[in-house]
Amino acid sequence: MTTAEIIGNIIYIGALVCNVSSTFCKTKKNTMLLQCFNVAFEIMANIFIFSLSAVIVNISGLTRNILSYKDRLDRKLTYMILVPTVIFSLVMNTKGWIGLLPVA
User: Fold this and answer.
1) What is the 8-class DSSP label of residue 51?
2) Looking at residue 24, what DSSP letter applies?
3) Within 10 Å of residue 28's Cβ, how many Cβ atoms?
4) Strand (E) positions, 1-104?
5) Whole domain around residue 68: which residue ranges?
6) Radius of gyration, alpha carbons of the chain
């Protein structure tokens, strides 16, 4: 394992903590806030492990979560986020069938 991969896995621990903590929240606002932090940690970790398609998917997920947190997410915005995410993920895929998993 390279140093970058080790750092990426350590950052994933932060994502794990946020993800698990979000399941115990009593309000939607707190859940969405922790999920925003979860995705932010995942973006940082994916940058360290050079997973560009996962970075793109997570950036769109973070955008969607922030809009949902601020109660501004509607069907039109959802599609405006979803369509470019799928297109960019398919274009950036360099890992064959495995690279399609973040898109699904």
Assistant:
1) -
2) T
3) 11
4) none
5) 3-100
6) 14
Residue 26 main-chain phi, psi, to 5 deg:
-95, -20
pLDDT of residue 7: 96
Domain count, the chain: 1
- pLDDT digits 0-9 by tens, 36-45: 999 999 999 9
Both tokens assigned to 48: 């360290």
Is the pLDDT at 19 greater than 90? The verdict is yes
Q: Which of 63, 65, 56, 64 is nearest to 85 (CA)?
A: 56
- Other residues' Cβ atoms within 10 Å of the Cβ of residue 42: 26
- CA separation for the pair 102, 52 (Å, rounded): 11
Helices 28-48 and 3-22 cross at an angle (nearest 10°) of 170
pTM: 0.84
